[in-house]
Design goal:
seven-stranded parallel sheet, Rossmann fold, globular, Tetratricopeptide repeat-containing protein
Length: 380
Amino acid sequence: MKLLLFKGREDNRLVSRVHTLFSDWEITTITYQPERWAHEPTLHPHFLNDLNANDYCVILSDPFWLPVVCTFNPRYIITLLSNPPQNSKQRSLWNKFALLAGGKSDWIGCESENLYIEYSLLFSQVVLLAEDDLMNDILLLECFRKFTQGENMQEVVEKQRIIREGHYLQLAERLGHREQTLYLACLYQYFLGKEEAENNLLDSFESLLMSGKTDKWAGRYRFRSAIQLASGRLEESIQTFGITASNSSDRQFYHQLLTWANEGQIHLTKGALFGLNGDWRKARLVLEEDESEESGLEKQQLLIKSLLKCGDLDEALNQMNGRKVLDHAVQAKIVQGLIHFLKGNIPGSIQSFLHASLHDYNALLHIIETENVEKVIQSY
């Protein structure tokens, strides 16, 4: 297996770690400016067509490279995400393409723990790239070995989560029951499917109130509904959400959840609750389990939303094309435009965005975004 490293910003600390971690493999850097990396093997993107893509694993260290990577269509894609750019405009675009990269990747590594937690609620194969941590580096190498040998990586993913859970529980004992420490322990326990997650969440919630951070109480307590739902307690989960429904929109949705549950639309109810807690991965899984022909437009819309949240453009488009609804038709054109762009079909992407703009002029912004991505890539 040969590795292609798609570098990005010069301040990306992950690049040096890649060379350290994967020193036993042949790594070639892809760049439009080979003179910047004269000390290492490089290749101009134009020559990717000369390679057998099936022989390569791509390490994507900057999501703006995604269109080039998708056009190359390698055997494997590993996305390693550092912190987003400081520039606010570029950060928004970076976040968008990082999500799309996640949807295309075989596994994802995140340098930021906040991003790791966010992506763990969207994707299954996510690891934390903790800096200067020998145990973590050993886990990453084990992860890569299992991955390249076609073995299940989930064992390594869970091993890391157990270590992080233990870290925060020890920290809570040493520093006192601080709300953020307990909450992080709770999140790792939630990922691991442990019952203790609920108690730590409640302790974190109590500590939050004691510290006077009352503006955050609803979001923190609401996550209890996800924990309850994951353990099969649907009614309790709905009631927990109801407690946090502090505005008219939330109260209306609470009654909608009750209606769906009473009508027996259990998959829809569960999917909505997981989505409300940001766990779109579980929302997607629950909704995809529902194969009943009676599933209506609401379930279809929620499934499409969960697919887009998880960066799966192809399946989202497939679902949209199955419904003859104007909103879906416009959204489908935008998604189709993004898919064209990722595959290197620039004329096709522009045409799709223009068609969508006939009903929503904001679709034209996607043309500007794709042009900006092209400019950024050319600078790498």
